């Protein structure tokens, strides 16, 4: 991608622009601030397909009535170490922030807590919620049913599954936390949309068409399927995670999933869950974190195969990206800026640049 097509924008400017747009679209000041903070964090850590990139579609859905701008997010079922949240069709960021807060408080009392959600929406990258328990010396696990189906069951042709992402965050002592954030497909669909906006081709292996041939033109993504990681194993993982995040919570799964990208008015009933695990319930916290540092050193010290220059742990790249972007700004493609200019003009707010 040509550097000529990029602008560098500070996290503060991105946060302010998102906040102003969401308030204008109908969110309360407090809710807009919470969502803007989480969306900005997505861009800071390199989750470019889930940060301000998503703002135009969010605003469109809010204005069209597809998202409730003033939800009453409540607990509908509860026991000591679990809860089920009704998100009242609010922004997924608000629903999952509350879910994480409840899971953390319950884990403090019970050692572990599982909090599911229904009536939610797209919430951005999985890792930002899995990381929330880290500040409390906990491990976080987050799973969601993706916001549109792009995957058939293995060997089939009807798209009944989504990318169904999972994130696991584990704290360390001196090293960055280990944070796995992955889709159950080779590429998340947000990356396909990002390629389309930038006018770039997709690599072979992301998608195939309905004849099983490689599909590299993102404008034709509706004519094909995302490929699951590991073939049938990725399909099985997407299926089981979808049941746990969707069916178990009374949320949409399979044929009931609404295409968040194409339908701006329908109730999506997105399902998610978060698990918080209090390390102290299992181990001395300092000892555990020190052991994770040891894991870091062991992994990094592995002899390299030809063609590799280092071993990287999950989350290491996003940690480096975050430091660089906080210092120098967040790269924004000209085509994304143009889309944001359209949002600004339609809402009557200042443009981002």
Structure description:
With 353 residues, the chain is an alpha+beta fold. It has 2 domains: 1-64 and 328-353, Malate/L-lactate/L-sulpholactate dehydrogenase, four-helix barrel (Hypothetical Oxidoreductase Yiak, Chain: A, domain 1), CATH 1.10.1530; 70-185 and 228-301, Malate/L-lactate/L-sulpholactate dehydrogenase, NADPH binding domain (Ribosomal Protein S8, Chain: A, domain 1). Helix content is 37%, strand content 18%. Helix 4 (92-110) links the parallel strand 3 and strand 4 (112-120). The mean pLDDT is 96.
Summarize the structure.
This protein is an alpha+beta fold. It has 2 domains: 1-64 and 328-353, Hypothetical Oxidoreductase Yiak, Chain: A, domain 1 (Orthogonal Bundle); 70-185 and 228-301, 2-Layer Sandwich (Ribosomal Protein S8, Chain: A, domain 1).
């Amino acid at each position: 991608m040509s550097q000529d097509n990029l602008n560098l924008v500070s996290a503060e400017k991105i946060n302010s622009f998102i906040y102003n747009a969401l308030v204008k679209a109908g969110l309360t000041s407090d809710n807009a601030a919470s969502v803007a903070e989480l969306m900005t964090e997505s861009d800071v850590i390199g989750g470019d397909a889930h940060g301000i990139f998503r703002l135009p579609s969010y605003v469109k859905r809010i204005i069209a009535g597809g998202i409730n701008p003033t939800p009453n997010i409540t607990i509908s079922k509860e026991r000591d170490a679990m809860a089920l949240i009704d998100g009242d069709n609010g922004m997924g960021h608000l629903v999952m922030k509350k879910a994480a807060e409840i899971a953390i408080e319950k884990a403090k009392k019970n050692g572990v807590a599982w909090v599911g959600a229904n009536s939610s929406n797209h919430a951005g990258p999985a890792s930002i919620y899995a990381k929330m328990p880290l500040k409390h010396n906990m491990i976080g696990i987050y799973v969601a049913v993706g916001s549109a189906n792009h995957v058939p069951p293995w060997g089939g042709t009807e798209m009944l599954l989504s990318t169904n992402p999972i994130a696991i965050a584990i704290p360390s002592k001196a090293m960055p936390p280990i944070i796995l954030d992955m889709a159950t497909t080779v590429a998340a669909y947000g990356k396909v949309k990002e390629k389309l906006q930038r006018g770039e081709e997709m690599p072979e292996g992301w998608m195939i068409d309905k004849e099983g041939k490689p599909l590299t033109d993102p404008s034709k993504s509706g004519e094909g399927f995302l490929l699951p990681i590991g073939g049938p194993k990725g399909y099985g993982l997407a299926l089981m995670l979808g049941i746990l995040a969707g069916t178990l919570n009374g949320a949409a799964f399979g044929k009931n999933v609404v295409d968040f990208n194409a339908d701006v008015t329908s109730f999506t009933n997105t399902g998610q869950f978060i698990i918080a695990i209090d390390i102290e319930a299992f181990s001395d916290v300092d000892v555990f974190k020190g052991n994770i540092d040891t894991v870091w050193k062991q992994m990094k010290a592995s002899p390299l195969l030809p063609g590799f220059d280092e071993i990287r742990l999950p989350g290491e790249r996003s940690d480096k990206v975050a430091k660089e972007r906080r210092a120098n700004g967040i790269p924004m493609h000209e085509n994304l800026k143009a889309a944001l200019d359209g949002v600004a003009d339609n809402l009557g707010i200042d443009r981002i640049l």
